[in-house]
Amino acid sequence: MPFPKDFLWGAATAAYQVEGAWDQDGRTPCIWDVLHPGHVRFDDNGFEACDHYHRFREDVQLMKQMGLKTYRFSISWSRVLPQGVGPVNEKGLEFYRSLVDALVEAGIEPMVTLFHWDLPHCLYEQGGWLNPNIPDWFAEYARVVVDALSDKVRWWMTINEPQCFVGISYVKGEHAPFLDQPSSLLPATRNVLLAHGKAVDVIRSRAKLAPKVGFASTGAVFAPGSREPEQIEAARAVTFSNERQAFSIPWWCDPIYLGRCEPGAAAQMGVTDLFTPEEWEQVSRPLDFIGFNFYQTEGLPVEGSHYPSNAWTGSPITNMDWPITPEGIYWAVRFLHERYGLPVLITENGMANPDFVMLDGQVHDPQRIDYVHRYLLALRTACEEGVPVLGYTYWSLMDNYEWAWGYSRRFGLIHVDYRTQQRTLKDSAYWYRDVIASNGENL
C-alpha cells in the first residue's frame, strides 16, 4: 500500500554543514568557525565543508536525478546579516534566492529552516541565546529572509533542535559554544521560545505565499514492550516526562503546541512559571505541523541486565553507535499527534555508515537501504492507522560536517570526497529514487 497522496519525500542539510565559503561575499564567522578548535575531531571545521555555496546547481541536479519532492535547508544568519542585525548582505541573500530558484525550476519544493545551530559569533559575544534581546534580533533576521524568499517558499521551520544547541551546547558543553553551564537553561529556554514565537508572527504577517509554519524538534521517544494498553501508556508517560529537562520533548514542545508547561518543569527552574500571560500567547502561536527529527528509540534500565530496553547483546547499531530501532518512528509520530493534535513531518531520519568509493567506482551501502526500508515500513503503518504524516525527510542529502565528529561520520545519500568535492550517488540514493517514484508502494 502506498503512502498518502502528495506525501513529501525529501532530504535535508544545514547551512554550516554543507555550504563552506565561510568568509566569502560578506559572510562573517559563526560560533562554529571561531570556537571549534580543541572541541572537534581532528579540529575539522566548516570553512569549505561540501562547497555547496559554489556547487549548489550541481547538487540540485543530483536532487532532481533522485526524484526528491522537497529539499530542507537552513539559512546562515551571518551570511544574511553579517552583524547579526542591521545592514543586509545582498550577496548572501542572492545565494539563497538562486538556490530557491534552482529548486523550483527542478520541481523541488524548498523548505527553509531559519536557525540550525550556527549563531553569528558577533551575537554570541553579546550573550547569544542568553541575551534577552535575542528574540527581537531573531525576528529581524526572520523578516529579512521571509521578505527575500517567501515569493517561492511556502514551508518554514523557525528553529531546529533546541535540545542540541541549548542542551548539548550551553548546558553540557559538547557543541558550540561549549559552555557547560547548567544555569544557562532557564534564560536560554525563555529566549529560544520567545524567538520562535516572534518569528512565527513575522512569517504569518509578511509571507507572500500562504505559509506552512512549523518547528523542528527532537527528543527521547520510548517504545512500549507490547501493544497492551498499560505498556503503551507507560511509554507515553516517560516520552513526555520533563525529567530530562532540555533534552526532553515536552520541555520545548508543550509551551509551543499547548501553551503551557507542566508545573514541575517551572519548579525545576526555581520559578513559578516560565512566562507571563502575554509571553505565553507569543510563544504558543498556532502552527501548521509538527517537525520532528527521529533516529533512535531511547532505552530504559532492564532489571538484571547491563543493556537498556532498546539494546541486547550484539544488537544492530549505526556508525554513531545509535541503536537501530525502526518501531520507534511509529510511536514518535503517533504520540506526537495524539498529544499535540497536528500532522507530523519527519524532518530528519537517517544513519551514519562507513561508506567509501569501492573499486568499481560506486558506493554500496546496503545497511543504509535496509535501515531506511525498516523505518519507512514503520512510518507507513502509522499512516495506515490514520496518523497524519505529511512527509519523510532523509538526513542527509550528502555527507557533510557532522559537528563535533568533524567529517568522520557519513550520513549522506550522496558520497562526498572532501579532497576533490567529487559527488557520487550511493546505492541508497538510487533505491530512494525508486521508493519515491512508487510513493512507497514498492517497500
UniProtKB/TrEMBL annotation:
<keyword id="KW-0624">Polysaccharide degradation</keyword>
<comment type="similarity">
    <text>Belongs to the glycosyl hydrolase 1 family.</text>
</comment>
<dbReference type="InterPro" id="IPR001360">
    <property type="entry name" value="Glyco_hydro_1"/>
</dbReference>
<keyword id="KW-0326">Glycosidase</keyword>
<feature type="active site" description="Nucleophile">
    <location>
        <position position="348"/>
    </location>
</feature>
<dbReference type="Pfam" id="PF00232">
    <property type="entry name" value="Glyco_hydro_1"/>
</dbReference>
<dbReference type="InterPro" id="IPR017853">
    <property type="entry name" value="GH"/>
</dbReference>
<keyword id="KW-0136">Cellulose degradation</keyword>
<keyword id="KW-0119">Carbohydrate metabolism</keyword>
<keyword id="KW-0378">Hydrolase</keyword>
<dbReference type="InterPro" id="IPR033132">
    <property type="entry name" value="GH_1_N_CS"/>
</dbReference>
<dbReference type="InterPro" id="IPR018120">
    <property type="entry name" value="Glyco_hydro_1_AS"/>
</dbReference>
<dbReference type="InterPro" id="IPR017736">
    <property type="entry name" value="Glyco_hydro_1_beta-glucosidase"/>
</dbReference>
<protein>
    <recommendedName>
        <fullName>Beta-glucosidase</fullName>
        <ecNumber>3.2.1.21</ecNumber>
    </recommendedName>
</protein>
<dbReference type="GO" id="GO:0008422">
    <property type="term" value="F:beta-glucosidase activity"/>
</dbReference>
